[in-house]
Amino acid sequence: MPLSDAAILREPRVTVLARPQFAEPAHLPVQWMGESTDGERLAEFAGRLCYMSQRNPAGRSTREYLENIKKQGHGSVLEHANYSLLLEGVSRSLTHELVRHRAGFAYSQLSQRYVDESDAQFVMPPAIIGDTPLEDAWRTQVTSALDSYVALVEQLMTRYAWVDDKVHRRKMAREAARGVLPNSTETKIVVTGNARAWRTMLELRSSEGAELEIRRLAVAVLRVLQQEAAAFFSDFEIYDATDRREAARLQYHKV
Description:
41% helix; elongated; four-stranded antiparallel sheet; two-stranded parallel sheet; alpha+beta
């Protein structure tokens, strides 16, 4: 049975789950200037502690202060601010690349051993979107894979009928059957990273040389994080690349 349009995903979804909450110590008050978020103030406080410059002798706003931090490459203070994002509408192919970013990140991903994928959704690769023959060929292959998965789970549940624990029996069936599912299978993943780690990931994955799906996600994440803490990501610029797709570049590399 062909996949419904609802089972085909063409864009990622990014949801903010957690952001920093800064509690300024009463005995070390900072002379704050300008608007800022808790995450930005946390990073500024950490930086000022190094030099005990809480009185803000240069009269800088938080965003001016952090702009100078990026310019000087003192990215360690950005590591104090963590942001947790829920990423949906992404493929397992994408997360295979994403989880290579280890320093400063934590991941929790949907398990195909425990979760029934009979009603799985699939992420259409950006490269074939808009080309009807390619879309049809891809849809046919994905439909066939899903049908095979459903049939295998049913057969394996029968094969493992001797396993009394039904939950364990289902896990055994699903972990074997998942081998036929394609990399395009949609997954969900919670990603927590500090601002410095997010900058590194975004610098690499939003560039023109990145794989198209993770590049699309990186641009979407960048937009969200620029709303969350503009001072950390203000030097990133989103633009239309020569391949007619969005990419991003930045002013301060390897902060």
